[in-house]
Write a structure and sequence with these properties.
mainly alpha; 10 helices; globular
């Protein structure tokens, strides 16, 4: 059944789901890097013969995506359920904490809005079968990776690797492409940026990107097939050039200031998911 045959209320529910997931993505974006750092510290302590325990340093409190409860980073006042309604609570509170009146970053409602908008568009574009559910998963993962990379220059394996395997599993049934195209896409996606990384390092002695970028492009290849990789690389380069020039002109970023490449890959991957086949057809028709 085509997505257009669904009643508007069903698409509206997809938007509401996207807004709710967007609220959770804000938690993932904030907490997952901190969870990774805690894990690294614990592993270092193990390697150092449990030095933290030997000095009597207390163990860190439990910290994950659900514990402790969300609170204001300034005054530590817990956020109630009524203060956690996507977008609406931000507007009602005037963008300020209910306790200390400190400004709340507008990025929180922005992530919720973009999640809701893209969820509605994915439902309209793919319907509510397996392809639609997969598109939602892909979009939500790309949003989380984009903002984590912007904040920390990390693309966590906890997201990229499950995303890669999910793409391969979905394409067992040919959801987006046939399985051979997905497997080749995953391998070529990884090797393409891996090759660029080592070539750049050999020529300059510097690392031009992180290993997370290889894994993200591999995941995109697993979802969309090797045929989409040239388009994704071209689009990510174009998006990166436009944003990079804009940052240098308007935000006065220097040329030496590092800019994460993951967000450009994520944006290109979403464009390719929704419109890649049409873009490729249009490009081929030019010749």
């Amino acid at each position: 059944m085509h997505a257009l045959s669904y009643p508007p209320v069903t698409l509206f529910l997809a938007v509401i789901l996207g807004l709710a997931i967007g609220s959770f993505l804000n938690v993932v974006i904030h907490r997952l890097p901190k969870m990774m750092e805690r894990q690294w510290r614990a592993e270092c302590a193990e390697l150092n013969d449990n030095a933290a325990a030997a000095t009597g340093k207390p163990a860190e409190e439990r910290y994950n995506l659900f514990v402790p409860r969300s609170q204001c980073p300034a005054c530590a006042q817990p956020i109630t359920a009524m203060q956690n309604i996507p977008v609406v609570s931000y507007l009602v509170l005037g963008g300020k904490c209910a306790g200390c009146q400190k400004r709340i970053s507008p990025r929180y409602p922005f992530v919720e809005l973009i999640s809701g908008t893209l969820a509605g568009y994915a439902a309209w574009r793919f319907g509510f079968a397996l392809a639609g559910a997969g598109a939602l998963l892909f979009v939500f993962a790309m949003i989380a990776l984009t903002f984590i990379d912007l904040d920390t220059f990390y693309l966590p394996d906890d997201i990229t690797l499950p995303l890669l395997w999910a793409g391969l599993l979905l394409n067992l049934a040919g959801t987006y492409v046939d399985l051979p195209s997905a497997v080749i896409g995953a391998a070529c996606g990884y090797l393409a940026l891996w090759s660029v990384f080592w070539l750049f390092k050999l020529l300059t002695g510097k690392e031009g990107m992180g290993y997370g970028d290889f894994k993200l492009l591999a995941a995109i290849g697993a979802w969309l097939g090797w045929q989409m990789l040239p388009l994704v690389i071209l689009l990510s380069s174009l998006v990166g050039a436009v944003i990079g020039i804009g940052l240098m002109v308007f935000a006065r970023h220097g040329r030496e200031t590092p800019i994460p490449f993951g967000p450009y890959l994520a944006i290109a991957g979403m464009i390719a998911l929704f419109h890649g086949q049409a873009i490729n057809r249009h490009y081929l028709n030019l010749f």
